């Protein structure tokens, strides 16, 4: 069952003691450039540097004490792994994280730094899934999928609750789409709170599986996509796809240049650090492929985790 | 006459319609690293990307209509030039900016973009001053010095008014020091508002003229200093020096490595873009040269104007 607005409201209350209420910022030069009034919901300032902490936190604190005692687990090499490890740490329960052995050292260190117990595996989806199955068998832990999970979707939707509380007059909300957890939560929260609000997603041209899935009416998995927006490489899930079909007006693809240019512009003008995946949502406005002139547009800046030694414009 | 707290309060009212009230942000990992409770006053989010806009704005809007009609002028190749140009534009009066002909194209473009009328000169202090004198003779414009000017000092102090309004329990305020305009305004506002508050300045080791001036009791000009903190190359002024002597507890020098490492840490963890000069204030805590353990410390992040193609850690 997809989460309801009430589920999202309950999630907001549940995670409130643990998450940052992130600010909504504006940037006049961005407004001028794109010809609209843009409100940036800064999940780059969220704990762990990404919205992912909301969903992970909601999943972890939804467990009964008995369930929680066995810990939580997932396979992930990215922000979700860190988010789950920190959420588990805050509840005082173990987090078992399956990571591919070739994951970046900085990511392994971050997960370990939050107290996550890492099991390494070969870097294939099969190895990740079979290793996770073994971990679950040994521990009895509760698996928290990075996006295809009602609790996670409800948690991600809380960012939009806050955004619309602060800027209720929005005409449009734009979020990036990878696996669709953020987009699902965003679209449920926004369309239930405000009739007629338009939900648009940004997706890299080079990883346009969600765009093609929506066109064709069935999930088309991504095949080895390559994009600078490395948070958006995953394919839609069985839970997220129908939510997106029902509630998202359209998915707009963004070129690699559009992603990088809008990312750099935000760093230069708004003075905030956003990751390429967050810039994909801005890229929808940046490339002017659709007409949103003069509208009030909320954008979920998904995160700010960037390797400062490897910036994409250098 | 140095500005008083009342001058700073009047400046705050005068510039309020034009400046951003910048946020005060905190960062848990920074607190952990430095062992204190740090409150960052984000002048990197100020218009023009730096606190300089406060002082320029106060100077421009302090003029009588008759004075204002002749415009304002300065020589500067940095943030002050842009700040003065924008402030003048907002008042609808001309800004005459003398810039060295070898100034970076991006800075020339920025000043011109705000409507500043640029006169180029040879890149020497003599040429800058004689060219400015000629401009003033021709235009009757009011010269606004980047720091050795009461109106500018009062304007810069408004950031600290806001900071102490939001976090009245501060034990210490740290600001960077170059020409001393920001430090003067900061120290007047803080020490007048809160008896016993400690004012500490950060200065690059490689441009430590203010440190040496304070030690020796007389202004020692900087001689061709070279530091990554290119906003702090100037020497103290006749107006700023006695204020700093009277109100600043000490100046702490920061190594180039300390500046760069703390700048990178803030980008990575707080997800905000700060310039090296702003990092100098954080560097005071970063290098632990003095003991501020456990205290509540306000830091004026002076600005966020950085060439993203030339980051100092690359």
Describe this structure in words.
The structure is a homodimer of 314-residue chains. Chain A is an alpha/beta fold and 314 residues long. Chain A folds into 2 domains: 5-51 and 149-310, Rossmann fold (3-Layer(aba) Sandwich), CATH 3.40.50.1100; 53-143, Rossmann fold (3-Layer(aba) Sandwich), CATH 3.40.50.1100. Chain A is built from 13 helices and 10 strands. Chain A has helices spanning 5-15, 28-34, 52-62, 65-69, 79-91, 105-113, 125-139, 150-166, 181-193, 209-216, 240-247, 256-270, 276-286; strands spanning 24-25, 37-42, 72-75, 95-100, 117-121, 142-143, 172-176, 198-204, 250-254, 296-301. Chain A has a 6-stranded mixed sheet, sandwiched between helices. Chain A has a 4-stranded parallel sheet with strand order 5-4-3-6, sandwiched between helices. In chain A, helix 3 (52-62) packs across helix 8, helix 9 (181-193) crosses helix 11 and helix 12 (256-270) packs across helix 13. The longest helix of chain A has 17 residues, at 150-166. The first copy, chain A, is globular. The mean pLDDT of chain A is 96. The A-B interface holds A 23, 25, 44-45, 49, 264, 267-268, 270-274, 304, 308-309, 311, 313-314 and B 23, 25, 44-45, 49, 264, 267-268, 270-274, 304, 308-309, 311, 313-314.
Write a brief caption for the model:
The structure is a homodimer of 314-residue chains. Chain A is 46% helix and 15% strand.
């Amino acid at each position: 069952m997809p989460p309801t607005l009430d589920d999202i409201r309950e999630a907001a209350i549940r995670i409130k003691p643990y998450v940052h209420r992130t600010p909504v910022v504006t940037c006049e030069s961005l407004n001028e450039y794109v010809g609209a009034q843009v409100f940036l919901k800064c999940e780059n300032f969220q704990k762990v540097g990404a919205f992912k902490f909301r969903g992970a936190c909601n999943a972890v604190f939804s467990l009964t004490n008995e369930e929680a005692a066995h810990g939580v687990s997932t396979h992930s090499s990215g922000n979700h792994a860190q988010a789950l490890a920190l959420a588990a740490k805050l509840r005082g329960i173990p987090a078992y994280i399956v990571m591919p052995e070739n994951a970046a050292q900085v990511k392994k260190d971050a997960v370990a730094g939050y107290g996550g117990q890492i099991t390494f595996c070969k870097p294939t989806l099969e190895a990740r899934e079979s290793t996770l199955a073994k971990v679950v068998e040994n521990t009895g832990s509760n698996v928290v999928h990075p996006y295809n999970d009602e609790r996670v979707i409800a948690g991600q939707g809380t960012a939009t609750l806050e955004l619309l509380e602060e800027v209720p007059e929005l005409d449009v909300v734009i979020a990036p789409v990878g696996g669709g957890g953020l987009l699902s939560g965003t679209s449920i929260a926004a369309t239930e709170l405000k009739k007629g609000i338009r939900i648009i997603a940004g997706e890299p041209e080079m990883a346009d599986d969600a765009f093609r899935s929506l066109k064709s009416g069935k999930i088309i998995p991504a095949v080895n996509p390559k994009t600078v927006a490395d948070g958006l490489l995953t394919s839609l899930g069985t839970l997220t796809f129908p939510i997106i079909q029902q509630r998202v007006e359209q998915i707009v693809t963004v070129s690699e240049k559009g992603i990088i240019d809008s990312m750099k512009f935000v760093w230069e003008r708004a003075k905030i650090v956003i990751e390429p995946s967050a810039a994909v949502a801005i890229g929808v406005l940046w490339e002017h492929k659709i007409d949103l002139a003069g509208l009030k547009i909320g954008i979920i800046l998904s995160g700010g985790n960037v390797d400062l030694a490897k910036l994409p414009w250098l």
